[in-house]
Every structure is written in structure tokens, then in C-alpha cells.
Specification:
Elements (H helix, E strand, L loop, with lengths): L10 H6 L38 E8 L17 H4 L4 E3 L5 E3 L2 E8 L2 E6 L13 H9 L15 E8 L2 E6 L6 H4 L10 H7 L16 E7 L3 E6 L10 E8 L3 H9 L5 E3 L6 H5 L5 E6 L4 E6 L9 H10 L2 H7 L5 E2 L16 H10 L7 H11 L7 E6 L3 H16 L4 E6 L1 H6 L12 E6 L8 H7 L16 H12 L3 H18 L3 E6 L1 E6 L2 E4 L14 E3 L1
Helix pairs in contact: 8-11, 10-16, 15-16
């Protein structure tokens, strides 16, 4: 399809503003095989061919809904990586390579040196300098940043000349370099950011980055449009313009994709597998490996949900294979603990991590033991527990129904609190909004490699990066071993320390992990491909689209 004949469908605007959500809860099946063909792991796609043909416009759906901000320190969404390049980049095989930084390496155990490429400019033509990098990294040294955990051990960041930055640490940190491949390494203009102040990243304040696209317009509630950066250091994108529309309702999204009204989307609903794979659609479903996992966890230290016996009981009451067959339509796999195996596949000590993961017990269903654990907990089972889910996603409604049914089987009552996507997202950053909620159900993902991402966020004290440790989880052994894994300079020593921590936190079920999910992309037949990974849930860190 040539640029002159590309579809221009007014329906897309209507789709982006849909407020009547059609998703409904679905009771779990008893069969574990019905209509759930499993995916051959060897067939998972890690990348598509590079685009070759220019095109004027692509419409891309953001299934998570409209972001509150495009500030990389405060949000993670598919739009930001197209605007803001990072110091390093995530490759399709989930390894880290150079980005805006020509080099980024440890020069001693507590000093990290970043050398910036000399051919990188912001959208306005001003060169990226070491001062801009210092400004960008400093913004993550606060618990308000979602990247704080990777910056918690930094003592000082300084620019030593126009293209060199030194980051000083209180102790070695094995997580920092990988974090620079995600939003933690996104580089923004210091001059623009300081002028924008609190409005930075909003529809009114905008932003200034050095990515392949620049922000063109943000129509709140409707769409965000970006246009190609002709002076991009990596080469101008082939797609001149991308319209990001917000379609959170799975049924609406499926209809628009298969009818060709929207060109593509990441993280499409697995419940629509048959529609995506059926004859007559306008595109194809691409299935890849992923760091994504469905889970639910406690939101308060005062709730019965904070009791590990309660979480262990619920875990024993849920059949993971049934969950995969019904909710994920076979597009996933049983995951033994909160840390998905995909994250350590490219690590130097991957065999140690894999052997330890393989040694973990397989999740099982044992209702009798689950009931015993509830009795041992001593909680008041007459008080319902509240599970919060986002509205509009069939998978979350089904998840809630399965958890609710499992709870009922062991003498617990769970009620469902369904919230609009923006309100649900706010739960993660506003403690007062979590009042009255016991569990929150999520599909989480890790943007960069490394086994410590989830444990640091959920199991450590807040000052060490545990920004999602809402239940006040505290185990001295886990904390000590995770910190030892983080500060070890030898990969084998780091792996051994992590394995020791995992042996303790895995049974605690701080997050009840239901399944690992494959990465699902639906792509219009008009598009030739994506130049970077489509296989990782958080990717691509730079989305380049083209058309046939």
C-alpha cells in the first residue's frame, strides 16, 4: 500500500474515545486443554525484518490507555521510547548494547564512566551534552522516579567534560548498567526541562529528547501524534508520522485491528487469539518471548493479604494450567516465581540462575493444605478481601473470576473493585487511593535484563528501592542476600547470593504469580516490520515502522 492510498478512517478517533467497556468476567473452565493450543517455544519471534518502504502515517493502539505523562522518569509506555533515546539500548535477545552513549562501563568497582556520542542532537538541533545526561540521571535519584531502585546506591553524578559523565557509588551496583537501556537512561534536554518545570512531559508542557520521533501534538483523551526526526543520529525513520490512539477495551481493539482500522498494537488481548489467527483478517499475530507475567499482590501492611499464609493458600487453590488455557488461550507458560527466566537468558551466570529456577517446586493445587493455611493464619474469614483490577480488559476480569472462585473454595470471600485504567494506574503512586483494597491484579514486565528488578521493587525497604513494597515485607536474610547479589562484582558470586534469597522469597508468594505471558503483537499486513524487538513486552525502545 503506497502513502497516497493509505487508509484514513475517522472511526479511529471514535475508537480512541470509547468509554462504554464491554469486558465481562468469565468463570474458569474445568478442562485444561479445550481450545488452548500451546505455542512451540522454538517458534517464538524475537524480531521482525527491518522496514524498507517509506509511508506517510501509521496508527498504533496503546492498549494500556492514555498515559498521564511522557516523562521517562514517571511513566513507562510504548510512546516514550519513540521520543527519548536512552544511553544504552535493549536488543531483541534482551541484551544491552550502545545507544546515545558510545561507551558506558565501570572503570573501578564504584565508578561508572559514560562517554556520549558526538553526533547526537535534540529535536531542536542543540547537541546532547554531558550536562544533559547528568540532569536526566539526577531526576531518577528520588523515590518519585520509577527507576529509583537502580539509582539508590549513587553518591554523586558529575560531568567531567562536554561528553563524559562519571557516576560515583557507595558500593558496586550490578543493576545500574542494564537500567541505562530502559527509561532510567533516557536523555532529556536540561534547558527545556528546567523551563517546563512541573509541566514537563504533560500535554501542555511537552518535552525535548533525541529520539527517532518528536512530539507533534497531544490531544487529551484522543491521541498523541509524533513525527519523524529527519536529523536522528540513527537515521531518519521511514514512517513520517505515528498516531497513538488509546483503546483499552479488548473487544473494540480486536475489531479495529482485524478490520484494518488500526495498523498495530503491542500486548493485544490473548482472549482474541482465534480472531487474530482467523482467516480474512487484515494482519497477523506475532508471538514472542517476554518478561511479562500475570500476578496479584497485597496493597497494605494492615490487610489480611499481607499474611504470607493467606497468599500461599490462594496460590495452592489456583490451577495455573487452567489459567493459561482459559485466560491466556495457551499463549503463556507456568512461571514458578516472580522472576521470569527470560530475564537471565543473556546473563554471564545464566546456568546458575536456570539450575536454581529448575529446582524450584512446580506450582500445585492442594485445596486441603490451602484450607489448613487459612486456619493457621487466624484471619477473620467473614471479612471480604477486595481485589482491584483495571476495567476494559477481559483478561483481568477473567483473572478476578478465577481468584474469586479459588478463594471461595478455601473459605475466603473476594470482591472485585473494577477501576478505569487511569484510576487504576494511579493506585501505584498514591497510597491514599489504595485504602480499602487488599490485593491488586496486574500484568507486570521488566524493561531491562537482570534478576533483581522485581525483588528490589517488592521485597526491599523503600530506601533501597522497594517502592512497591506496600505490605511492609521484611526479611533480613532476603534483604542481605539481594544486596549481596547487587553489590557483588563477580557474576558467579552475584548469582549465588540471588539464589539464596530466592529460596526464601519464592515460597513467601509476595506476588502470587499466575503465569508468564508470551508477548503478543498484531501487525497490519500493510506494514513490512519493525526494526527492533517486538518480543519483549516493554519494547520497542525505538519503534520504526514501514509499509509494503
Amino acid at each position: 500500500m503506497t502513502p497516497t492510498t493509505r487508509r484514513r478512517l475517522a472511526a479511529v478517533t471514535a475508537l480512541a474515545t470509547v468509554t462504554a467497556l464491554a469486558a465481562t468476567a468469565c468463570a474458569p473452565r474445568t478442562s485444561t486443554t479445550e481450545n488452548a493450543e500451546q505455542v512451540d517455544p522454538t517458534s517464538l519471534v524475537t524480531a521482525l525484518p527491518a522496514a524498507t518502504t517509506p509511508v506517510d502515517e501509521v496508527t498504533w493502539a496503546v492498549v494500556e490507555g492514555e498515559p498521564q505523562t511522557l516523562d521517562p522518569a514517571s511513566s513507562a509506555n510504548v510512546i516514550i521510547p519513540n521520543l527519548c533515546d536512552s544511553l544504552l539500548t535493549v536488543e531483541p535477545d534482551f541484551t544491552i548494547e550502545a545507544g546515545i552513549a558510545e561507551t558506558a562501563e565501570w572503570i573501578d568497582p564504584v565508578t561508572f564512566e559514560i562517554t556520549i556520542r558526538d553526533d547526537v542532537s535534540f529535536w531542536d538541533g542543540t547537541p546532547v551534552t554531558a550536562s544533559d545526561v547528568v540532569y536526566s540521571l539526577e531526576r531518577n535519584r528520588t523515590p518519585a522516579s520509577q527507576w529509583f531502585a537502580a539509582f539508590a546506591l549513587i553518591s554523586n553524578i558529575e560531568a567531567t567534560d562536554d561528553d563524559t559523565v562519571l557516576v560515583h557509588f557507595t558500593a558496586p551496583d550490578s543493576t545500574f548498567r542494564d537500567a541505562l537501556g530502559g527509561g532510567g537512561g533516557a536523555v532529556m534536554s536540561q534547558a527545556f526541562g528546567e523551563a517546563a518545570g512541573q509541566e514537563l512531559g504533560t500535554s501542555g508542557g511537552g518535552l525535548m529528547c533525541a529520539g527517532p520521533y518528536r512530539l507533534e501534538d497531544w490531544k487529551p483523551g484522543t491521541e498523541i501524534s509524533v513525527v519523524a526526526n529527519p536529523d536522528y543520529w540513527g537515521g531518519a525513520p521511514l514512517t513520517e508520522r505515528i498516531r497513538f490512539v488509546f483503546v483499552t477495551d479488548g473487544a473494540t481493539l480486536t475489531s479495529a485491528l482485524t478490520a484494518g482500522e488500526i495498523d498495530g498494537a503491542f500486548n493485544v488481548p490473548p482472549g482474541s487469539r482465534q480472531s487474530f489467527e482467523g482467516d480474512g483478517g487484515a494482519g497477523r499475530l506475532i508471538v514472542g518471548p517476554s518478561t511479562a507475567s500475570y500476578s496479584f499482590g497485597p496493597t497494605s501492611a494492615d490487610s489480611a493479604a499481607a499474611d504470607p499464609l493467606v497468599r500461599q493458600a490462594l496460590s495452592l487453590a489456583i490451577d495455573r494450567q487452567v489459567y493459561i488455557d482459559t485466560v491466556l488461550q495457551g499463549l503463556g507458560e507456568v512461571q514458578k516465581t516472580i522472576v521470569p527466566p527470560f530475564v537471565f537468558g543473556g546473563m554471564e551466570a545464566k546456568d546458575i540462575y536456570q539450575d536454581a529456577y529448575d529446582a524450584l517446586p512446580e506450582p500445585e493445587v492442594d485445596l486441603d493444605r490451602a484450607k489448613e493455611l487459612i486456619a493457621e493464619s487466624g484471619i477473620d474469614t467473614s471479612v471480604p478481601l477486595v481485589l482491584a483490577i483495571p476495567a476494559g480488559a477481559k483478561e483481568f476480569s477473567q483473572t478476578a473470576a478465577i481468584v474469586q472462585s479459588a478463594a471461595n473454595d478455601i473459605g475466603l470471600t473476594i470482591t472485585i473493585d473494577e477501576r478505569q485504567p487511569a484510576d487504576f494506574g494511579a493506585l501505584f503512586f498514591s497510597p491514599e487511593l489504595r485504602a480499602g483494597i487488599d490485593f491488586v491484579s496486574t500484568v507486570g514486565y521488566l524493561e531491562v535484563p537482570g534478576v533483581l528488578g522485581y525483588p528490589q521493587l517488592f521485597m526491599l525497604p523503600a530506601d533501597l528501592g522497594g517502592i512497591f513494597n506496600w505490605s511492609g515485607y521484611s526479611n533480613d536474610v532476603v534483604t542481605a542476600d539481594l544486596q549481596a547479589a547487587r553489590t557483588a562484582t563477580d557474576p558467579t558470586a552475584a548469582a549465588d547470593a540471588f539464589v539464596k534469597a530466592q529460596e526464601v522469597f519464592a515460597p513467601d508468594q509476595l506476588q502470587v504469580t499466575l503465569a508468564g505471558a508470551h508477548h503478543l503483537t498484531y501487525l497490519s499486513d500493510d506494514l513490512t516490520g519493525i526494526t527492533t524487538s517486538v518480543a519483549i513486552y516493554s519494547s520497542p525502545w525505538a519503534l520504526h515502522l514501514g509499509a509494503e
